[in-house]
Amino acid sequence: MRKEKGMTQKQIADQMHISDKTISKWERGLGCPDVSLLGELSQLYEVNIEKILLGNLESNDLETGNLKRIKFYVCPDCGNVISSLGDADISCCGRKLTPLVAKPADEKHIATVVDDEGEYYITFDHEMNKTHFLSFVAYVTSDRSLFIKLYPEQYAAVHLPKNGGGNLIKKNSSRLYYYCSQHGLWIF
């Protein structure tokens, strides 16, 4: 990790206020950093602490970026939404996040799609209050995704362009994801 950063042992040691001999010992496997130094090492090397402890910095398999494999993550504390196209270690607010599993739309989470002159107008018969609401809608085709953030106390509806390369009405070349704050991720 130090070499990836283009730094010497002395430079790392000076930044951490320790000796370069200590860095040398760590790199030769003759010692381990004190737990109190892991946070600083993590920031310095821009690496997850868990990866430092495991000594495992293997890359994920090369993904082709296929949007059909898109994964969504939502932080239960702050509501932050993150997406990825491949395997990823995602965390927010100090918690490791797992990808959401999309469920097929049910009668309480159904989308109504109207084909309206060059765009889709999509409505949801869903509560939109501060404790139960749709947080986002994502329209995903084979080569692009459009993310739309929704907020409590607004009308649960979105306009989507039809020129996205997919046909939402047929549901075979595009997908519509939406996230309910109480019941998780849904797919139409």
UniProtKB/TrEMBL annotation:
Q: Which Gene3D superfamilies match?
A: lambda repressor-like DNA-binding domains, SOR catalytic domain
**Ranges in a coiled coil:** none
Q: Does the keyword Methyltransferase apply?
A: no
Instruction: Cite the InterPro entries for this sequence.
Output: Cro/C1-type_HTH, Desulfoferrodoxin_Fe-bd_dom_sf, Lambda_DNA-bd_dom_sf
SUPFAM superfamilies under this entry?
lambda repressor-like DNA-binding domains, Superoxide reductase-like
Q: Check the record and name the PROSITE patterns matching this protein.
A: HTH_CROC1 (PS50943)
List, alphabetically, the Pfam families matched: HTH_3
Which keywords describe this protein according to UniProt? Answer: DNA-binding
**What molecular function terms (GO) are annotated for this protein?**
DNA binding; iron ion binding; oxidoreductase activity
The HTH cro/C1-type domain sits at: 1-52
Taxonomically, the superkingdom here is Bacteria
Indicate whether Membrane appears among the record's keywords.
Answer: no
Protein name listed in UniProt: Transcriptional regulator XRE family
Identify the species of origin.
Acetobacterium woodii (strain ATCC 29683 / DSM 1030 / JCM 2381 / KCTC 1655 / WB1)
